[in-house]
Amino acid sequence: MSSTIDTVIFDLGGVLIDWNPEYVYLKEFRGDRDKMNWFLNEICAWEWNANQDAGYSLEQATLDRIALFPEYERLIKMYYGRWEEMLGFAHEDTLDILKSVVDHPDYNVYALTNWSGETWPKAIEKFPWLQWFEGILVSGDEGMRKPFPEIYELILSRYHIDRTRAVFIDDSKANVKGSEDVGLKALHFSSAVQLRNDLQLLGLKL
Fold first, then answer.
1. Which of 4, 87, 131, 159 is most solvent-facing, going by the fewest CB within 10 Å?
2. Residue 51 is part of which domain span?
3. Are 169 and 186 in the same domain?
């Protein structure tokens, strides 16, 4: 089966890179996962962090949160103060798939990531393979984030990608839907085995 796909766009966190606040906070809560989860759901919540992925200042976001929850000042400051400790490893099995796509002469490879522009240089330093991509669009540098349509349109226009010949991969169902809403085919990532199979079903030679 030949493929009509010539461009693959990868999400990074959750697909190729492991990042988890648990690496810091589980120790701080002395292994009490319930207390840690409450803190990460109610105080330093996911949507709060996502705002920084759209370009909001980490320093100001921290001050804003401390103003709301002054009793948690020490723990709130850890979120970005110890952010590098939350940045884990590369998912080697997915990295193998990326390498296969990169090495194939018929495919173009890009990344579209929700990531603070302030912490992004640390990722570049830690993961040299990020240089494999022909282009990476970082939400925090653009002042917009997935799953909103503007960011998908931006990567398509910036790199002259034909949306009918591209596929986007993300571990968030909301981000997959956002991609599909602008006519960009998307795959929901759950494992490297499943991803390789899905890409082969689209006709990619891996």
1. 131
2. 20-87
3. yes
Peptide bond into 147 cis (omega under 30): yes
pTM attached to this predicted model: 0.94
Largest CA distance in the chain: 60
Give all strands of the β-sheet with 135-138 in edge-to-edge order.
135-138, 108-113, 7-10, 166-170, 186-188
Domain end, chosen from 40, 56, 87, is at: 87
Strands (E), the chain: 7-10, 17-19, 87-90, 108-113, 135-138, 166-170, 186-188
Residue 138's SS3 state is strand
Tens of pLDDT, residues 39-85: 999 999 999 999 999 999 999 999 999 999 999 999 999 999 999 99
Domain termination residue (choose one: 65, 87, 109): 87
Residues 103, 180, single domain; the answer is yes
What whole-number distance in Å separates Cα of residue 38 and Cα of residue 160? 43
